[in-house]
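Input record (one chain):
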Amino acid sequence: MAKHRLRYVPKGVPTEFDLRVMELERKGAHVPTRELIKTPEQIEGIRRAGVVNTGVLDTVEQEIHAGMSTLEIDKICREYCADHGATPACLGYGGFPMSVCTSINEVVCHGIPKSKDILREGDIINVDFTTILDGYYADASRMFIIGETTPAKERLVRVTKECLEIGLKAARPWCDVNDIGRAIEPYAHEHGYGVVRDLTGHGVGCQFHEDPEVCHFAQRRRGMILVPGMVFTIEPMINMGTWKVFIDADDPFGWEVITGDLKPSAQWEHTFVMTEDGPEVLTH
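The corresponding structure, as predicted from the sequence alone:
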């Protein structure tokens, strides 16, 4: 009879930490591989990438205004990155043609910057940027309200940020990653909103996308255990109407995701490292 192949294989003599993870796996838990648990040196590298990533979004926040194109936002992000010795992770990733995602109103995510996409009073826009610095990745997005918008859009942006904060509180060391979605979805539903199911948060740090998958809706199945040293994003995409989405048929690159009923969507995102005391934000 073949032996069960362990997912978690310690490096060298097992530590007390290793033994705890191995015992959880023995009891049937879905544990990470050893490679998903970052070393202190790797976490410091991701933290430095996070500082640059925060600087990119801070600069966008200072300069974004009605009348500018999303292509101008791309230029701001690209130049800040270059000035700080970093690289935009999105540029060229899977054929994505720009350095940042700019998603306006009913565009849920992966909006491609264009000279013809001009920001107008009342728009809401998500700017999603991922930095590579010295081989390490940090990923975050923010919502921006252009001028004054409707109370409904303003409420959507606020509640979506609250969903991120609720997901963060649910993410505890040694918890099930699906506890995050179990906390977020009921709160979104209280406000009559749909939680996008087709796109998720993810592990990050040494690659753009790593395990685990971080769902923002409630699932019955058990997910991966979040152990100290894991780095991941929480990035709920909350729609004013249905949770269903589709890919824009007019997008030649096949990236832009649109709400199924063309109602507005919002998203907030941060990169976190799990510690023994809980998650620490790496992208402020």
